[in-house]
Amino acid sequence: MTVMPRPSILSVEPYVGGESKIPGVNRVVKLSSNEGAFGPPPGAIDAIRNMAAEAHRYPDGGVTALREAIGARFGLDPTQIVCGNGSDELLALLILAYGGEGTELVMSAHGFLMYDITGRWAGCRVIKVPERNLTVDVDAMLAAVGPRTKLVCLANPNNPTGSILPQSEIMRLRVGLRDDILLVLDSAYAEYVTRMDYDAGAALVDAGGGNTVMTRTFSKIFGLGGMRLGWAYAPAAVVGVLSRVRGPFNVNAAAMAAGIAAVQEAGWIEKSIAHNTEWRIKLGAALTAAGVKVWPSEGNFLLADFGSAEKAKAADAALRSRGLIMRAMGGYGLPACLRISIGTGEECQTVADAIAAFMAQHG
Ligand SMILES: *Cc1c(COP(=O)(O)O)cnc(C)c1O
Question: Engineered SS bond to 257: which of 47, 131, 228, 356, CB 3.0-4.6 Å?
Fold first, then answer.
């Protein structure tokens, strides 16, 4: 006899994050975790420094100043905002609160892995729905819904595919779902989207059905992945649920200070979008010219398709030998692909040159 967790826990495959080190290599270029090209906003660095002497104080459990700053920045009601230790925490709390043994969670085949991991933890049956052209298929998602379905989780744009659904398709999904199914719109990359027919999720939350939640993060465009800070915009009843289950001090004081400064940093989002759009196009064009298929992306990353798992593995090895770390995609069912974050111009150029050299040898 020994201690055992609930059986569903043992079906969880631990999340494997992007690597940051290569043994024996001093200078690495890490483009494996979509962390933003510019590091943290300067104001956020100052804010973290300035709060250090107050680190003995518990943070504000109500997260009031940060929720107000987010609300002001994005034009949202602060009372409908809940902050978390990364949006991963909020996604987990939602799935644990609304899922559970005997329920189903529906996601797309190449959707974000945390839904699968937390869904299993919660005891849900996780249903992965085939995609079309690496894009969520709304009809197939609706067809996969059954009487036990409690949650539909969707990243838009999706990581790792980069694909996006226009607002009309998101609306069609919501309208086709029963009212007692929670639709979780994970908009971690919302700020990078340049298409006009996109809504990050607030419109559906505001539509009043009480059953749609949007999650957002400070880990991507705001360059604060190490602070662990995310937020949800949710109907009042869901805010109430999250307030019951979150830890009383789930957002630490440094993260709060950094988050407030980040959303108030003048020009940060604009500068980041401009850089991302420029280099997403340039890097995509360079890879295409080198003979690598690049999937269309609305995020701060590209999914590079080498055509076979062997070739993707060889490319990964060749890049690593030069200190370049990309994200292997086997865990997402895309073993022929590598995901490449948009870094600085210099980093993107270095990767483009290395892949061109690899393809010239192995093409
Ligand atoms: C990075 C990412 C997250 C996690 O963000 P954190 O706020 O750092 O927990 C959530 N969803 C998607 C799709 C992501 O790519």
Answer: 47
Going by alpha carbons, the residue nearest to atom 2 of ligand 1 is 188
CB under 8 Å to 226, separation ≥6 — which residues? Answer: none
Give residue 129's pLDDT band: very low, low, confident or very high (50, 70, 90). very high
Q: Which of 19-28, 65-74, 324-333, 353-362 has the lowest mean pLDDT?
A: 19-28
32 within ligand 1 shell (Cβ under 6 A): no
CA dihedral over 186, 192, 195, 200, signed as positive or negative:
positive
- The residue ranges of every structural domain in the chain are 7-39+268-362, 42-263
* Nearest in space to 228 (alpha carbons), one of 255, 261, 253, 248: 255
- 297 in contact with ligand 1, CB cutoff 6 A: no
Of 112, 116, 332, the one to substitute when testing ligand 1's pocket (max ligand atoms within 8 A of C-beta) is 112
The pairing of beta strand 293-295 with beta strand 230-233: unpaired
Question: Given 3-state DSSP classes, what are the helix, strand and coil percentages for the chain, each rounded to the nearest 5?
Answer: 45, 15, 40
Output the CA 184–ligand 1 centroid distance in Å: 13
42-263: CATH, from 3.40.630.30, 3.30.2010.30, 3.40.640.10, 3.40.50.1220? 3.40.640.10
Is there an atom of ligand 1 within 6 Å of 121 CB?
no
Query: What is the 356 CA–ligand 1 centroid distance (Å)?
Result: 30
Q: How far is the CA of 311 from the centre of ligand 1 (A)?
A: 28
CA-wise closest residue to 119 among 97, 145, 142, 96: 96
Residue 214 main-chain phi, psi, to 5 deg: -110, 135
